[in-house]
Amino acid sequence: MNLNYAILRVEPIMTIPDLAQIGSHNKREKKAYQSNPNIKLELTKNNIELVPLNVKYVKGFDELTKEYKKEHDERMKTERADRKKRYHEMLNSSKNVVADELVMTASHNFFKDMSREQIKDWADTCMEFVYNDLGYKKEQILHATVHMDEKTPHIHCVVVPLVKKLDKRSNTERYTISKKQYIKDKLHLSELQDKYHKRLTDKGYDLERGIKGSDNKHIKIKEYKKITKKVNHELNVRNNRLDKAMNDFEEKMKTTKQTLIIDKNFVKVKKDTFESMNNVIEETKKIKELQPKLEHVFNEVDSYTTSYRTLEKENQKYKNEVNRLENENDKLKNENRSLKNYIEAILMAIKKFFRKVLQLGDEDIKEVATYEIKEYYDNDDFDKKDVKDISVATTKQDELFEYANIPDYYKEQVRNKDDYDMCR
Asked: How far apart are CA 418 and CA 416, in angstroms?
């Protein structure tokens, strides 16, 4: 009874640091894998590179998306200072993925007795799904590899959904990373998993479609309970039938002893006794048929719990890292608060200086100061109130009021420049 499943998972990669970590795992760049004892580094040489990458993931990503980066950098030249972001900073702060990781595998027994060449053929079929069903081009594949150094062979295929789309605001085509161009939603993903299964079975691979409604990593616990309950019910029914058949057979054997005929070549029993014996054999066969199904479910549950324990360990590690980052963040907040106060004090001193220049300086120095005040305003270091406070009741008042769109009625608030004090 073959119960091997075709498995396809899609894991979103949201930031460049996440991409770097995944690359370190997929390319086996760590010296040891204490959190994952299933990895046998001595077998890593057997891993199969489907789409090789000879540099680190982030460098490969930058090369793959260089036109997008060039477009972004050009756009930043005309962006306001407070809105400017570096390329990676923009990607990390967006709500979009930077890449997707496709994990393709099958139940452990599917790979039993398979040669490396046969696994490579299976992997090539999986990549046909990536190209022909998902629609990715080879230049959008950052890296694809088959890990042969773990318990079950599996593919890690990292794709970058880089596309050109019409930007309605500028009415021009711009680069963007858009997962929805390839996987629209969960319903679409389920349809793709159907296609993935069909592509494999069309090539002759004896695989079942994965259970629908499963999450990204494992079949949901609720689904496990449902399957286990069904199998246990079936097993109980079979056991009850076997018990009944055995009891019936034992009763028949009591009377058979009196009419048992034995000669050199034959043992003869009553017909109804013989039928009850066959009944026991049939019920035993039916229970044996259940064994692979039970074994599969138990193996899946065991695999789930093992993975869950690993995730718990990983989770604790992440908790510690989060605590460390929170402490670092608190320090940065305090430093940032001090820096902001310092900058505010400096700006206040600069405002007072410009005010004095516009009040007491000659025309040449006033011209220079006026130009600088406009620069500070354009860079959002000064607001309208700052410009008003600096220039009101000076010879540069009208020019700077007009530049910053300050209402005229402010001019009447201070009739005598000697009455005006910035620090009031």
From this structure: 5
Amino acid letter, residue 181: Q
One-letter amino acid identity for 102? L
The helix or strand, by DSSP H or E, that contains position 279, with its residue range, turns out to be helix 271-360
pLDDT given for residue 376 in this prediction:
83
Q: How many CB atoms lie within 10 A of CB 162?
A: 20
Amino acid at 174: R
CB burial readout 182-204, b (16+ within 10 A) else e: bbeeeeeeeebbeebbebbeeee
Residues forming beta bridges with residue 103, ordered by sequence position? 9, 156
Residues 6+ apart with CB under 8 A from 252: 270, 272, 273, 276, 277
Q: What are phi and psi of 299, to 5 degrees?
A: -65, -40
Instruction: Give Cβ neighbours of residue 157 (< 8 Å, ≥ 6 apart).
Output: 50, 51, 101, 102, 103, 104, 126, 127, 130, 141, 143, 144
203: phi then psi, degrees, rounded to nearest 5? -85, 0
Would strands 154-159 and 141-147 be described as parallel, antiparallel, or unpaired? antiparallel
Backbone angles phi, psi at 267, to 5 degrees: -120, 120
Chain segment 201-237, per-residue pLDDT in tens: 999 888 887 655 544 344 445 555 566 666 666 666 7
The Cα 65–Cα 195 span in angstroms is 29
Q: Are 30 and 120 in contact (CB under 8 A)?
A: no
The whole-angstrom separation of Cα 248 and Cα 258 is 17
| β-sheet bridge partners, residue 106 | 6
| Predicted TM-score of the model (pTM) | 0.52
